[in-house]
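Reference record
================
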Amino acid sequence: MAFDLQALHGYDRPMLKAEFPSATHFKYFVQDYCFNSDTSCKMGFRSGSKSQYICTSTPCEWHVTATRIRRKGSTGKSFEIASMNLVHCDSCTSTSKATERQAAMLPAVKALVLAQHDSSKESLVNGMQDKVLEQYTSQLENSYNYIPWLLTEFGRANPTCRVSLEADTKSRFYRAFVSFGVFVAAGPRSMPVMGLEAAHFKTKHYKGSSLTLVQKDGNGQNVVVAFAILPKESVDNYFWFFANCTTAGITVNPLFVDQKKAVVAGRALSATNIPVVLKFCCLHIIQSVKAHFDFSGPSFEEQIWNLQASTSRTMYMHKLDMLTAKYGYPLRRYLEDIPPVKWVVFANMANFADMEGRRLYKSATTTFTEHLTDDNGAMRHKVQRSLPFGALFKSMERAAKAVAERDAKARQWLQEKRVLTPFAKDFYLTQKSMANMYLTKPTTDGVYCVYRSTAPMHDQEMVNLNDLTCTCVDRDQMELPCRHLIAGLKAVNKMERILQAYGYCYTMEAYAQAYKDKRIDVPRVEAKVADPNLKSPPLVRAPKRKRKRDPPRNRRNPSSKTYKCRKCHGEGHNISTCPLVEETEVDVGHIMPSGEAYAGFTAPPGYSIAMFMDSVLDTNDASDCDSCKSDDMEDTDELGFCLDDLLNSSSNNNNSASMNMPAATGIMPGAMAFRAI
């Protein structure tokens, strides 16, 4: 359920100069707005004349500030919004949490309270908690029974999509994978750059992680190519994910990853023989720097972003010197240890000779949200706050909606006889407006020096009209005509060649071939069929009693316990440091993957336990252990959907991308055959 802000407060969203009778009314408005937006807020600052609310997620800079109205005619108690920032950062983990006032306004709570109006407050709360938890726990375990049906029906309705499901040795849910064939086939007609976003589930009933493979289409918008649910971000799980991507026909090059996960992903990719160049996410680098050096603030982050955008080594060193002068040499050494070709623009340009250099298309993060182009941020958080069934269904719904929207756009743009996508056209119009400020000077046959008339010595580039190239970053990285190339073509009256400067992914021909007359069908939840053989995964819950905090290391008493080795039965050491144990005798059973293909699903051909053990597994790396210690606490319903999502969504959302399928009678006992793109 979403609150009617217009009816309750007189405004449907925060806006500057919006007036409220008191600071309390302003607080209620901000809380209700955050509840509708699936986020939560807290008080950041409060005084007699100023009130500010900020996001509950510490790195997020979302805020709304109101000040007391002092002008004539006011009561002296009124407040108005003076400043605000309604954009949440990509790493924001804030979730919707109803206050007591908001909970009392929900119809379900009202009905329950009225039904037990003769009970005391304490007995009502305790009775509700016991009864809800008793029913809720049993329903959560049943949601995993529907995952085989969901993946089987989705694969049957969409033959170009690959689905995979694995259970552990006790037939408990282990991991799942789904790729979307329309976006896989559209890969060669999209920007050849991908991002791999890893995130923990934000629910206390499942402690796994998700992997989302993202790509940009020719209109500059994000599409999810593949989605997987894993117990942990280990090498084996990455290996299994990339093996499924290869089977589905996905080619990823280059690939943006988290710098801290680069070693894990690189070892997995090397085992699958996929020639992929890894790039590091700038946002994760900023977060790592903050954790190491305790730096913060928008000014510091902006300087790191500017360092990443350096278009020459000279500019890179100059910006690095500025960071050193302000923050010290330890930060410089940390940044210099990261190869520039992994994340800085200049090292990936054509004039910089490096085997790992790739065109980045002005991308710098795993989710391509550096320019606020991601319109699926809210959906991504809803997926993370659901159980595996709800997360898989939401990802399918998201893909079906994205394909339907692009199909409609392709039809409309073809009727308008467009040649290029709106993204490419807007880029051209912006560059064309700046081209009038540039002059040209011929140097050799077909090569011109293009410089700005107001700063001829500081802003000049070399344009080759023979092959339509330019030394600027816009032309080199975006594969689009820049202002220098436009000025050069204007100087020789050959503007008809401008269409040859566009990459194929920006043409309407490529966009229509990728999305016109395409669709993805999603099974109807009403026709779900349970498979009691698949059980819920094990869940390690928090201790019921408060755990005593250990004293600091410098204040601990020496332990009186004597270590005893179970190999030689000697004292003072354990088996890991025993001199009688050879390296090959180390037990790796605790880090060996336990997943196997579930009945009715096929494992990727390139993946096997033996290959993983021989080629990938590092017994000395603790990250290869499949255990997760994430601690989140979102609530879901009996099918694994986030409860806040259900409260805030309309009842007909599930019908937008559903298919009219007859009720299934059971899970197919044989192996499913999937067609790769």
Notes: Residues 388-415 form the longest helix (28 residues). The chain is about 35% helix and 15% strand. Residues 136-281+365-416+503-539+598-616+628-677 form one domain.
